[in-house]
Amino acid sequence: MKVGDILRKKTARVATVRMNETVGVAAQLMRASNISALVVKDVVRTEGNTAVGMFTERDVVRAIAEHGAAGVNLKVSQLISVQQLVSCSSADTLEHARHLMNRNHIRHLPVIDNYSLIGVVSVRDISTAFDEASAVAKPAVDAA
C-alpha cells in the first residue's frame, strides 16, 4: 500500500501555519480543525510558499512549560527545527513512511510531490491502514 492510498481517503485540505504566527494562533488553528499538527510554511523568494517544518501539540506544551503564559506569544519559528524537513511522497510505501517516523521520532509526515505539499499522514493513519489491510487479508472465522 502507498501513502497516496491514504491521502485519497482523507480531506484534501492541509492545515498550515506561517512561521511568524504565534503559538496561540497555531493552537487555535489546531483546536478549530480538531488536529494535533500543522505544516509550517515560509515564503521563500525563489520558491514561493514552501513547507519548512511541522508544529505540533508537543510544541505548544513545550512553549508553555518553558515560558509560562508568555509562551503563547512566541513565534512558531522559535520552536520548530527547520534544518531538514522530513517528508515522503505519495508513491512511497507505508512501510517507508513508518520507518521515517520511527527513525526521526515524529508522528506526522508531510507528503510532498513535485515540490508541492499535497497532504500529511500520521502514525494513526498508517496504523489504521495496516489494521484494515490485515482485516481484509484474514478470513472471518465462523462461530460453530
What does this structure look like?
There is one protein chain. The strands form two sheets. This protein has a three-stranded mixed sheet. A two-stranded antiparallel sheet has the order 4-5. The protein is α+β, with helices and mostly antiparallel strands. The protein has one domain: CBS-domain, CATH 3.10.580. The longest helix has 15 residues. It has five helices and five strands, in the order αβαββααββα. The mean pLDDT is 88. The radius of gyration is 17 Å and the shape is globular.
Structure keywords:
144 residues; alpha+beta; CBS-domain; two-stranded antiparallel sheet; 5 helices
Q: Assign the structural class, choosing from mainly alpha, mainly beta, alpha/beta, alpha+beta, or little secondary structure.
A: alpha+beta
Radius of gyration: 17 Å
Q: Which shape, going by the Cα principal axes?
A: globular
Could you estimate the helical fraction of the residues in percent? 25-40%
CATH topology: CBS-domain
**Number of domain units:** 1
Distance between the termini: 34 Å
CATH level 4 superfamily: CBS-domain
Strand proportion: 15-25%
Number of E strands: 5
Average pLDDT taken over every residue = 88
- Going by CATH, the architecture would be Roll
